[in-house]
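ARCHIVE ENTRY
Sequence with per-residue tokens
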Amino acid sequence: MAQTPQLHLLYSCPFCWKVRGLIEHLDLDVEYVGVNGMKIRKEVSFAGDWGKVPVFTDENGAHHVDSTPLLRHIDATYNGGKLAAIGDAERQATWMEWVDTHLSKATVPILYGSLGSALKTTTRISKIETFGFFSKRLYAWAGFPIMWGIIARKRVKSDGRRPKQLWHDLLGEFTDAHNGEPFFGGQQPDLVDFAAFGYMRSVSPFPQFSLLSDHAAGMAWYRRMEGTLA
């Protein structure tokens, strides 16, 4: 018997936002299941050794993992592969790799690039994710020095740009690749658009999103993407 598909996710996860955007665009009936951020591996153990989110369980009970393959699977299964077929396949593959390499690594610096921003981020995450009573407080107050001191500082130092400048440079490079069209895919978004949108959208629940708001071309594209969601 068919069941309603499920997406196990973290509500602050950029990889989950990639998949959610496509699901919303296609107006699919999918149940979102939040997992405990301190127990991810345990809560998605049903999907094997992957141990990460997102995990998509289809109507037949089969589990699918990894955000970019998930985009392709959902497009192929529920949309006839129409988004993957837009434009030149080699160009789409090249820029999908660019998005997954560059924009994905820019989310941590913008959210955790300073001690103050890291505290704001972990506090916000503790409120929007599924935590137990004690793990919520532990994450909020113990998580931010780890994310800032161990991960974000290293990325900011290795790149050399402040997080805002990094995002502005990347958004400029990405929107220039649209070649004057509304979307990377042309007159309509393709899978690359949804991947990039997911990374940017993952910053939107946090105050640091304001650092992106004065990139005119990037924000214009972002609002157009919002307009494609059901």
